[in-house]
Specification:
The protein is mainly α. 55% of the residues lie in helices and 4% in strands. One of its GO terms (biological process) is mitochondrial calcium ion homeostasis.
Length: 403
């Protein structure tokens, strides 16, 4: 285990919230740079904090090479890739940011992402093009850096990126209002040929100075000469979304084919800024007295819909419902028009029972979209403790007072 970790703990003060979370879950260190294992990454997006205190274990060159040698090629990918790799993999900080982006993006955005990497337009992405991602996210991160001791910031950059970085940014901005709000926005807006040309030149230097990772070997082979086509890229992104959803679903299903409506509510609410979650859960328990259960297909379809929440909001505006409440039939139609996803009547009814606080069988913008937008911070915002049980008397009391 790396000695002197306590000497580096104060670097946490100079880290952004995302950097802090990465450092909290990362468990490996190689030549001064921190890495997550696939298990660490899954834990970081499904748990509030590590199950046990993490210590950065130093990898030898031989150990790293052995890990990379056992990395499967992209055509052997599946929705169990991260679980199968478990501790046998290394994920860098910029790759962590990339993977977080994937989790909350609609399938239509997969093509946009691929085209961003495919700078020469040949429908294939090579290793050099993919490494441009490292620079785009690093440049974006520089804009969020906390001011303070430059020596400490330099040490932190070395931990996160594996090399010292200049403070001047290639991603120029004319004003604060023009800075993209998310890493995905950065990727979409950083597509000028001049920018990619500049970053691509630097990618050569980065490639020669950085060690390979599990993701790089998975995509581009052990020699780094393979190219990634859109079908494989799409499959990887879809598999990752599915894998995280499967892990969450299985953690509540206890081997059954369904999870309870209450557990479904738990999973939705723990990604939000809602303070009084118990009132939502109590409202749902009183409104759905007989448990029917939510299947994985229903569970997955709803999260696919949430990844299209922005398009759904537009659809609601087109229907002129943005500032008004809507019923279940209108909700289902708007979801299908915006996303092509068909939600089951039981799933829609469950959603209404969770978020329909005033119990008028209508959902307002504030009741649903305003809350669900917080979910886009998944993997970054910590979970809140939620009271799982209530008494039958409290349900009866609430029912009486609501009449």
């Amino acid at each position: 285990v790396t000695e002197g970790r306590s000497d580096l703990e104060d670097l946490h003060l100079y880290a952004t919230p995302r950097e802090q979370r990465f450092r909290m879950f990362a468990s490996l260190e190689f030549e001064g740079q921190l890495y997550m294992t696939p298990h660490d990454f899954i834990q970081s997006v499904t748990s509030d904090e590590p199950k046990c205190a993490k210590k950065w274990r130093s990898l030898s060159k031989q150990e790293l090479n052995q890990i990379l040698m056992e990395t499967p090629p992209v055509w052997k990918g599946s929705s169990k890739l991260f679980r199968n790799l478990n501790e046998k993999g290394v994920i860098s900080y910029t790759e962590y940011l990339f993977l977080l982006c994937i989790l909350t993006k609609p399938h239509a955005g997969f093509r946009i992402a691929f085209n961003m990497f495919d700078t020469d337009g040949n429908e294939m992405v090579d290793k050099k093009e993919f490494l441009v991602l490292q620079e785009i996210f690093r440049k974006k991160n520089e804009k969020r850096e906390k001011r303070g001791d430059e020596e400490k910031r330099a040490m932190l950059r070395l931990q996160l990126y594996g090399y010292h970085t200049p403070t001047n940014s290639v991603l120029k901005r004319e004003g604060e209002d023009l800075v993209p709000r998310s890493y995905w926005d950065t990727l979409r807006r950083s597509t000028s040929q001049a920018l990619f040309s500049d970053l691509a030149e630097r990618a050569d230097d980065i490639s020669s100075s950085l060690s390979d990772t599990t993701l790089l070997v998975h995509f581009f082979g052990k020699k780094g000469k393979a190219e990634l086509n859109f079908e494989d890229f799409y499959r990887f992104m879809d598999n990752l979304q599915t894998e995280v959803l499967e892990i969450e679903f299985l953690s509540y299903s206890n081997g059954m084919n369904t999870i309870s409506e209450e557990d479904f509510a738990h999973i939705l609410l723990r990604y939000t800024n809602v303070e009084n979650t118990s009132s939502y859960l109590e409202n749902m328990r009183c409104s759905i007295p007989e448990e029917k259960g939510i299947t994985f297909d229903e569970f997955r379809s709803f999260f696919q819909f949430l990844n299209n929440l922005e398009d759904f909001t537009i659809a609601m505006q087109m229907y002129n419902f943005a500032s008004r409440s809507i019923g279940q039939d209108e909700f289902k139609r708007a979801v299908y028009v915006a996303t092509g996803v068909k939600l089951s009547p039981h799933l829609v009814n469950t959603v209404f029972k969770i978020f329909d606080v005033d119990r008028d069988d209508q959902l307002s913008y504030k009741e649903f979209i305003g809350i669900m937008k917080d979910r886009l911070n998944r993997g970054f915002r910590g979970y809140k403790p939620i009271q799982r049980y209530t008494t039958f008397k409290s349900c009866v009391r609430k029912e009486l007072y609501s009449r």
